[in-house]
């Protein structure tokens, strides 16, 4: 497409930071597409939205998420972040307490999902 791709560096919790691989490309950009995997509260992408909004030259900012957990929740997040966006699917994952989780009871080591905090 001829459009530069700029990646945000992530911190130790895999959350995006405001450090980018090519910040100069942002200065020349007409728009920004922010892509994320799971959208819950939107707090994990807020730093990127804030950076995008600082660039006065951007004609548009869009957010695309692979999945959301809450029906209609992504629309509220887009509104709160003041961006247009789209979510590809609504996941129907259940949230289970450790006391009710079969894997936890079996002592299976789980990978923490910081996005869900």
Kindly state the mean pLDDT as a whole number? 80
Low-confidence stretches: none
In terms of structural class, how would the helical and strand content be classed?
Answer: alpha/beta
Helical stretch tally:
4
Beta content comes to 25-35%
Order of strands across the main sheet: 3-4-5
Distance between the termini: 36 Å
Can you tell me the overall shape? elongated
Question: If you had to describe this structure to a student in words, what would you say it looks like?
Answer:
This protein is of the alpha/beta class and 117 residues long. It has one domain. Helix content is 24%, strand content 28%. It contains 4 helices and 5 strands; from the N terminus they run E-E-H-E-H-E-H-E-H. It has helices at 23-28, 46-54, 73-81, 102-105, and strands at residues 8-10, 16-20, 31-39, 60-68, 84-90. The strands form 2 sheets. It has a 3-stranded parallel sheet. The longest helix is centred in the middle third of the chain and has 9 residues, at 46-54.
Summarize this structure briefly:
The termini are far apart.
SSE diagram, text form:
Elements: E1 8-10, E2 16-20, H1 23-28, E3 31-39, H2 46-54, E4 60-68, H3 73-81, E5 84-90, H4 102-105
Parallel strand pairs: 3-4, 4-5
Antiparallel strand pairs: 1-2
């Amino acid at each position: 497409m001829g459009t530069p791709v700029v990646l945000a560096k992530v911190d130790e919790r895999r959350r995006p930071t405001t450090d980018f691989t090519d910040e100069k490309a942002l200065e020349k950009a007409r728009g920004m597409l922010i892509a994320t995997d799971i959208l819950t509260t939107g707090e994990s992408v807020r730093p990127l939205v804030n950076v995008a909004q600082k660039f006065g030259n951007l004609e548009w900012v869009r957010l695309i998420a692979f999945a959301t957990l809450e029906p209609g929740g992504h629309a509220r997040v887009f509104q709160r972040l003041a961006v247009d966006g789209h979510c590809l699917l609504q996941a129907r994952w259940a949230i289970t307490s450790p006391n009710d989780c079969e894997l936890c009871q079996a002592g299976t080591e789980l990978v923490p999902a910081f996005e869900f905090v």
